[in-house]
Amino acid sequence: MSTAVFFHAHPDDEALLTAGTMAMLAAQGHRVVLVVATAGERGLADLPQGEELGQVRMRELHKSAAVLGCARVVLLGYADSGLGLDGGVAEDRPENAFMDADVEEAAQRLATVLKEESAELLTIYDPAGGYGHPDHVQVYRVGTRAAEIAGTPIVLEATVNRDLLLAGLRVASRFYPSLDIRSFESAYTPAEAITHRVNVRRYAKAKRAAMAAHATQTTGGDGARTLGAFLRIPGPLFRFVFGTEWYVRRDLPPGTRLKHPFDDPKGVGSSA
Question: What is the pLDDT of residues 247-260, one digit of tens each?
Fold first, then answer.
């Protein structure tokens, strides 16, 4: 069996974007390793930001990882860069903020894990970091370089099908008129660019449990929290909404359609 390393910016990112795939691979006997750049200590929560929140969120991360069948969890130890009041770059970010980290140095640290694990697959984010969080953009930069250093053959960008997302948001806007759909028009990835559509409906229960493990992220802040809203979705609808996870592999031609992370028309790996 093969080893897959899932690289994320903060605790709870794994639950939202890749939890079903992680649970599926672990159930199939593959070794699943979770690496996070930061402890998410500047996230919104009903706890003070800082070291205390970071410690709690790391405990939540380990709980999520256990539910998903991860064999190892690694924290790179960078500081959460946070977001500004307008949702952009925070000006008061800490000295060791991940977004400001030297890409080569951070990539070497991630590459060490990839080499230790003889990883055949690494997941990162797309160049825009999905919805633009600076730490997510840095995951793309660092992960891309780390795979080059380690010689990891398969690199998948975890993403969301933008076409389906916008369609769902248009429906939701009928009930929530204040919903700003325009901010998502350039987020994530259009359907035609996606190379992997992974059916994870059988692992929806594990994905939901991974989300629930991140209790600090279900409340806090001035508005409704995305994670909390997702956990209120009834089971059958949850399986439908979160039953597919999407990835982009840049070294495959447009129009490639694969159903498993290790499926590889180049012959590097397979789902077997």
Answer: 999 999 878 999 99
Give 166: exposed, middle or buried? Use CB within 10 Å, 0-12, 13-18, 19+. Answer: middle
Q: Domain containing 233: what range?
A: 3-161+191-248
Give 167's contacts (C-beta < 8 A, 6+ positions apart).
Answer: none
User: Is the separation of the CB atoms in 39 and 55 below 8 Å?
Assistant: yes
Does residue 213 lie in a domain region? yes
Cα dihedral 137, 142, 143, 149 in deg (nearest 10): 160
Grade residue 272 by pLDDT with cuts at 50, 70 and 90.
Answer: very low
Query: Would you tell me how many other CB atoms lie within 10 Å of the CB of residue 48?
Result: 9
| 71 domain-assigned | yes
Task: Provide the CATH number for the domain around residue 47.
Answer: 3.40.50.10320
**Torsion over CA: 200, 204, 210, 212 (sign):** positive
| Assessment of whether the complete model's pTM goes beyond 0.90 | yes
Q: What six digits make up the tokens of 32?
A: 């699943």
Is 172 within a domain?
Answer: no
Report the number of distinct structural domains present in the chain.
Answer: 1
